[in-house]
Specification:
There is one protein chain. The chain has about 240 residues and is α+β, with helices and mostly antiparallel strands. It has one domain. About 10% of the residues lie in helices and about 30% in strands. It contains 3 helices and 12 strands. The strands form 2 sheets. The chain has a 7-stranded mixed sheet. It has a 5-stranded antiparallel sheet with strand order 2-3-4-10-9. A hairpin with a 6-residue loop joins β2 and β3.
C-alpha cells in the first residue's frame, strides 16, 4: 500500500508553475522564536497563489531572519523531502550571485533508494527521518564556505522540518550578519525545489549526470498540465 501511495504522489504534476509577479511584503518583528517547526509563535501564514497548497511567513528580530512554511499538498511534501526547500536572496548588484540556503539535502543515491523502494518518505512519522539529510546546501554567504554545511555548525544557520497530522512544517533561522546586498531592499525567493530546475538565478540548467554539488537527481515527471502547482514565490522587502 505504501508503494502505491508514493507512486500516486510522484505521478502528480509537480513541475514548477512559477510565482505571480513579485510581491512587496513587510517582515514583522517577532520574539521568543523556537526554531522547532511547531510554528506556535507565528500569527498567520500567507497562502501561496491562493491555491491552499502551501503557506509561508517571514519574521525578524534584531539579529536574525526567520522563515516558516506549512505544506499541505502531498505532492509538494514529497518534492520538499526529496529535493529540499530553497531560500534565495537574489543579487541587486552586478557580478553578484544568489545567496542560497537549501534544506533538507539528500544525496542522489539516497533519493534513488527511496524512490526504488517505494517508501512514503517518513511523512507519516514525526521522528528520525531527518537523519537522511546530509546537511544544508549553502552558497553566496560572504563568510560561509559554499557547498555542504553540517547540520551542527558555528555560523548560526539552522533549519528543521516536521511532519504532523498530514502536513509538513518547516522553520529556519538565518543570522542577519551573514546576509549581503539586502539594502535598500531584499529580493527573496522561496521555493519547493523540483529536483532539476537551477537553484541559482544565474545558474544554467544543472548537469545531473555529472553528479556535482549542484547537480541533482532527476525525477522525470509528466508533461505540464493545467494541474501544476505554484512552487515558488518572489518577495521584495526591507530587512532592518
Amino acid at each position: 500500500m505504501k508503494r502505491v501511495v508514493l507512486g500516486l504522489l510522484l505521478v502528480v504534476g509537480i513541475l514548477p508553475s512559477f510565482a505571480q509577479k513579485k510581491q512587496k511584503i513587510t517582515v514583522p518583528l517577532i520574539s521568543d522564536v523556537q526554531v522547532d517547526a511547531v510554528l506556535g509563535e507565528w500569527d498567520s501564514l500567507h497562502n501561496v497563489a491562493d491555491e491552499g497548497l502551501w503557506f509561508y511567513q517571514l519574521g525578524q528580530d534584531a539579529d536574525n531572519l526567520y522563515v516558516a512554511l506549512r505544506i499541505e499538498d502531498k505532492a509538494l511534501q514529497v518534492a520538499a523531502v526529496l529535493h529540499g526547500i530553497a531560500f534565495n536572496i537574489l543579487p541587486n548588484k552586478k557580478k553578484k550571485e544568489d545567496i542560497l540556503f537549501l534544506f533538507p539535502y539528500l544525496d542522489n543515491e539516497t533519493k534513488r533508494a527511496m524512490l526504488q523502494q517505494g517508501e512514503t518518505l517518513g511523512l507519516e512519522k514525526e521522528d528520525d527521518w531527518m537523519e537522511r539529510s546530509r546537511g544544508y546546501l549553502v552558497y553566496g554567504f560572504p563568510t560561509v564556505p559554499k557547498g555542504l554545511l553540517s547540520l551542527q555548525n558555528s555560523y548560526g544557520l539552522y533549519a528543521t522540518v516536521r511532519p504532523h497530522q498530514e502536513k509538513l512544517y518547516y522553520e529556519v533561522v538565518i543570522p542577519k550578519v551573514l546576509l549581503d546586498y539586502t539594502q535598500p531592499v531584499a529580493r527573496i525567493k522561496l521555493s519547493i525545489h523540483d529536483g532539476f530546475s537551477p537553484l541559482l538565478s544565474t545558474q544554467k540548467q544543472p548537469n545531473a549526470r555529472a553528479g556535482g554539488m549542484y547537480g541533482t537527481y532527476r525525477y522525470r515527471g509528466p508533461a505540464r498540465s493545467k494541474d501544476n502547482r505554484t512552487t515558488a514565490v518572489l518577495l521584495e522587502t526591507k530587512i532592518d
